[in-house]
Amino acid sequence: xxxxxxxxxxxxxxxxxxxxxxxxxxxxxxxxxxxxxxxxxxxxxxxxxxxxxxxxxxxxxxxxxxxxxxxxxxxxxxxxxxxxxxxxxxxxxxxxxxxxxxxxxxxxxxxxxxxxxxxxxxxxxxxxxxxxxxxxxxxxxxxxxxxxxxxxxxxxxxxxxxxxxxxxxxxxxxxxxxxxxxxxxxxxx
Length: 189
Fold this sequence. Notes:
By secondary structure, the protein is an alpha+beta fold. The chain has one domain (25-98, 119-183): Transposase IS200-like (Alpha-Beta Plaits, 2-Layer Sandwich). The protein has helices at residues 12-15, 58-68, 70-73, 125-143, 164-175; strands spanning 31-38, 47-50, 53-56, 77-84, 88-95, 157-161. The strands form 2 sheets. A 4-stranded antiparallel beta sheet has the order 4-5-1-6, with helices on both faces. Helix 2 packs antiparallel against helix 4. It is globular and about 45 Å long. Mean pLDDT is 83; it is low at 1-6 and 101-115.
């Protein structure tokens, strides 16, 4: 009989979660962030690579659409390079300075905070990634009629992009990802 994981007593030696984020760094700060998310159990849900080109499945198109919608929910975010792979995705989010926003930026869209009111905490990178994961999971599970099924691994990898040279290197890596799929550490047959 398999033990019920939810009934297991908490053991801090086994069940602690170590953060992979930079200590004391404010992940709501303007700047570029590289993000990588992997599917639960490395399942190839999002399509396949054929002749060094990614061919998105129905689920892969959902992931693409949810990523593209991030600025609609967070008007102070711009999208940069992005790729969906069979069992993971890479993308660059750029958090802009909301104090530079004009009326045209995000016009008609609900803002995560109101700049005219007393300042409140801006959404963090983690909140944006969580929103993306939630929306894509909800939509994929509706398609496959499998509510509550995990699509993504629990955590994600991020890197604060420190300068233009590093940003160019990460952008190139993302754009060339499909061509390197068979040598990629995430490649699963």
